[in-house]
Amino acid sequence: MDNQTIEEGRTIAIISYLTLFGVIIAFFMNNEKKNRFAAFHLRQALGLWLTFFALGYFVGLFDNWLITIGFWIFFGVLFIFGFMTAVTGRNQPTPILGEFYQRIFASFGN
Hints:
Elements: H1 3-16, H2 20-33, H3 36-61, H4 65-88, H5 98-104
């Protein structure tokens, strides 16, 4: 991917990590230009947010602070990693789940 594509899609990529609403806003922002860099990070952020809420429901059923803190640290690290790759202009998938998100959301954002 060339530097111009990365620079054009960087703002959209960063917005996608901010909240679940950020993913929706970034999706509509990327609808016009179809930037590949932004689409990559849209898929990563959507996957992280959906996994966060799905697993968060089950983690909430446990009455254990260690499980809850581990859950927050795990997703905090993944979100910071994804956000920093968007800021620095890299197409590096999120550890553990990133390649999976790229496959299952292949049509999202394109």
